[in-house]
Design a protein that fits this description.
binds copper (II) ion; 2 domains; elongated
Length: 315
């Protein structure tokens, strides 16, 4: 047989291809800190989630090391030796029950605790001072809608979602008239953010690893239970993690967590521009961008041209 087609050569070629492809995979989402660990947590709810992850990691790590040590010890102790015959054991039922029951109890405990934690972090009612923001996902981008000068988002309904009304705003609700849109998710630090998620077409996702937050976005419904509190000023990336079509790989939006003062300034400018825009534009197309056309087209925002890796959160 040709030596290039031997099994070893084939495995070698496969490994070489994987190694060659690896830098391209990393280049999709370059990170400048915590390269060998989780991205830095930047939300209040993420602290408890990280504790759970560390607990599971250290528990399973300790069990792995302990079992491997015992395994290697017995491999050496009972290795083949001249003059010693192998014996056959039927095992020990009591031991079998113990080492099945203990991990089962641990797994059930972890399931109960993590369920409880997730509902505490995500499914508890958002605090009354939350900033409500509509998030519309579409092939292939995100758009965000803020409450405007009256600080009320107004009613949205999934059945009203369309090309001209991607947030499903109720045109009869006066509170939606002054809403404004943005292609950047601009957030004030340390204030609870309540997002209402809807999709114009297929299943997308609201995924921000630094906020330890993941939620699918479904067409035909408005998901209104997701809230979080960003705790660190910086730039983050919102990524869609549901395979939603040919442009999925590039479906992302920039998140800017800024100080309360910077946010006020940005918000007031946007709200002012929205209220001075032609009222007819709002009336005929609720939910459509009034101050930020880029939000509808998915084109990059002028103020923040996003370059991955260049504006990562402060270490
Ligand atoms: Cu998507």
């Amino acid at each position: 047989m040709n030596r290039w087609f031997s099994p070893i050569a084939r495995v070698g070629a496969l490994l070489a291809c994987l190694l060659a492809a690896a830098p391209n995979c990393w280049a999709i989402a370059p990170r400048t800190n915590n390269l060998w660990w989780m991205p830095e947590n930047a939300s209040a709810g993420g602290v408890a989630i990280d504790h759970l992850i560390y607990f599971i990691l250290f528990l399973t790590g300790a069990v792995f090391v302990a079992t491997q040590v015992v395994y290697i010890f017995f491999l050496i102790k009972y290795r083949a030796r001249r003059g010693i015959h192998a014996t056959y054991s039927h095992g020990n039922n009591r031991l079998e029950i113990i080492w099945t029951a203990i991990p089962t109890a641990i797994f059930i405990g972890l399931w109960g605790y993590s369920n409880h934690l997730w509902s505490d972090v995500l499914h508890s009612p958002p605090p009354s001072n939350s900033l409500e923001i509509n998030v519309a996902a579409y092939q292939f981008g995100f758009s965000f809608q803020y409450p405007g000068a009256d600080e009320k988002l107004g009613k949205s309904e999934a059945r009203l979602v369309s090309n001209d009304n991607m947030f499903g705003n109720d045109p009869n609700d006066p509170d939606v008239k002054d809403n404004f849109t943005s292609s950047i998710l601009e957030l004030p630090v340390n204030r609870p953010i309540h997002v209402r998620l809807t999709s114009k077409d297929v299943i997308h996702a609201f995924y921000v690893p630094q906020f330890r937050l993941y939620q699918d976005i479904l067409p035909g419904r408005i998901i209104d239970w997701v809230w979080f509190t960003p705790t660190k000023i910086g730039s983050y990336q919102l990524a869609c993690s549901q395979l939603c079509g040919s442009g999925h790989y590039n479906m992302k939006a920039q998140i800017e967590v800024v100080s309360e003062a910077d946010f006020e300034k940005w918000y007031n400018e946007k709200a002012k521009a929205a209220s001075s825009a032609k009222p007819a534009a709002n009336d005929s197309a609720p939910g459509k961008a009034t101050t930020d056309k880029a939000a509808q087209s998915g084109a990059p925002h002028l103020r923040y041209a996003y370059e991955p890796g260049t504006r990562n959160p402060e270490p």
